[in-house]
Design brief:
4 helices, eight-stranded antiparallel β-sheet, alpha+beta, 8 strands, single chain
Length: 158
C-alpha cells in the first residue's frame, strides 16, 4: 500500500507529492536518471515509454514518449537544471500536447534507513496551469507510475 500524499493548497502555484520507497536512495536516483530504468517504470502500465533523450546533467535535455497500444503517442520534454547524486534532481517538464505550459520540478530523495522518502515539488507558471494539471488526472497517473517505480526497485535490488 502506497503512502503517497499530494498537496495542492488552493491559490498556490505548486503541487507537492511525497512517497516512500523500499530501496536505497542511490537506486531511486538511478531510476530517475538512467534511460534503461526509466523505460521500465515511467508512465502508464498499458503503454510503452520510449526514452528519446536523457542527458542527466545540468543543461542536459530529456524527452520521453509514451506510446499506447492503439498507436497514440504523448511526448514530454525538459531541461535539467541541477543534479546532486543521490539526493536532488531539478528539471523543467512540458507536455508537448500543450506547449508553453512549463513547470519546474524538484525531486528530493532522503535516506531513511535503507528506504527512501521522495518529495517531488512542481512549481507552475500560474494557478490556472496548476489546476489544469490536477484536473487532467495527474494524481492517478502519478500514483500508477510511482507504483511501477516501486516494482522496478524491488526487482533491481534483487
Amino acid at each position: 500500500m502506497s503512502d503517497m500524499k499530494v498537496v495542492a493548497d488552493p491559490g498556490t502555484h505548486e503541487i507537492v507529492i511525497t512517497r516512500s520507497f523500499d530501496g536505497p536512495r542511490d537506486l531511486v536516483f538511478k531510476a530517475f536518471t538512467d534511460p534503461d530504468a526509466v523505460r521500465q517504470w515511467w508512465g502508464q502500465a498499458n503503454s510503452e515509454t520510449v526514452v528519446d533523450q536523457l542527458e542527466a546533467r545540468p543543461g542536459g535535455r530529456w524527452r520521453f514518449v509514451e506510446r499506447e497500444a492503439e498507436g497514440n503517442e504523448y511526448g514530454f520534454h525538459g531541461v535539467y537544471h541541477d543534479l546532486q547524486a543521490p539526493e536532488r534532481i531539478v528539471y523543467t517538464f512540458e507536455y508537448e500536447g500543450m506547449p508553453g505550459h512549463v513547470l519546474l520540478e524538484t525531486i528530493v530523495l532522503e535516506d531513511q534507513d535503507g528506504r527512501t522518502l521522495m518529495t517531488d515539488t512542481s512549481v507552475f507558471q500560474s494557478v490556472g496551469d496548476r489546476d489544469g494539471m490536477l484536473q487532467s488526472g495527474m494524481e492517478s497517473g502519478a500514483s500508477e507510475s510511482l507504483d511501477r517505480l516501486d516494482a522496478y526497485l524491488a526487482k533491481a535490488k534483487g
